[in-house]
Fold:
Amino acid sequence: MNQSKPKYRYEIDPYNNLIVESGKKTSAQYFRKVVNGKFRIGPKNQLEYIIRQPLDDKNFPRVIRLTGKWSLTEKHDLKLTISEDKKRSSATIILKGQIVETGKNSIGFSISQKEAANKERIYVLKIEGFWQVDNYNRINFNVKKEKGDVDNLVFSCGWEIDSNNSIVYTYNKADHFTGEKNTHMLEFKGLWKFTEKNRITYDISSKTGSEFAIRTAVVVMDKNSIKAELGIGLEKSKTYREITFFGKWQINKNIGLLFELEKQNNKQKNIKFGCEATLKNTSIDLNIKAYGTKKDLDIGLKLKRDIKCIDGQLFVELFKNKKESAVFLGVGGRF
Structure:
């Protein structure tokens, strides 16, 4: 009677090396060994382990391919929950390291390994996917899998906006070799857009799916600022933020309503809006809309009648030229 071969079991040692185990401890076929090798990311973000020194078992593959579900631990380590199949048992492995790259459609995770001779090896695993925020405004990296499936790496700490109006995510972590505590900061470069009511979009690469559609409670605009209130995290651990953009309002008769940012970065000088402008006795009343559409943001703003267009012409003169009491700007309508 043919006996089925025992399944392989995998785990990680304290130095990020793969351990292979097979058989029962009381069996003559039992073995357990730390395998000298290196991790890499294969097709469809599958984790692979390249074996440097072959095992005694000649039938054992030189490349171990591990299929499972990716996630991020509270300590910001990479976790893979391995699926069970005919050759292996289910298991959970955690790669200890740090996040070093946040690309438009990728995340880079640096890990270090130590071999028997105490030689340290450091390299970066690059996983492909796209960035979003979930219903709780937490940053998520969605790992692309086969058949269009995704795994979610959830960033549990809150994020903030730096002095250049970029989103930054900060977390504290101890080095798993030395125990030294360090602060790590990740920067996301993008463009701010107001796309619909109670939502601000931070466009990292919207054409490829990377954008933060941030849910807001309140948005208030005045003569030199835009303020938005929002919450980040689950109800039990939610933190509240007020993000503020400082600057000044400008009008471009070809583009629409612009908010020129006081603090600018290399990617964005202003935020564009559409609006319906109505001339009043002492002011120009604006009903703010999403740029390029007629989606109402349910935000009102008053500007002085003496506001000038970017070309220097008084805005109120354009009303007189048009002989209208209201005009549309930046919403695909008329001016």
About this structure: Helices lie at 315-322. DSSP finds one helix and 28 strands in the chain. The first strand starts at residue 8 and ends at 12.
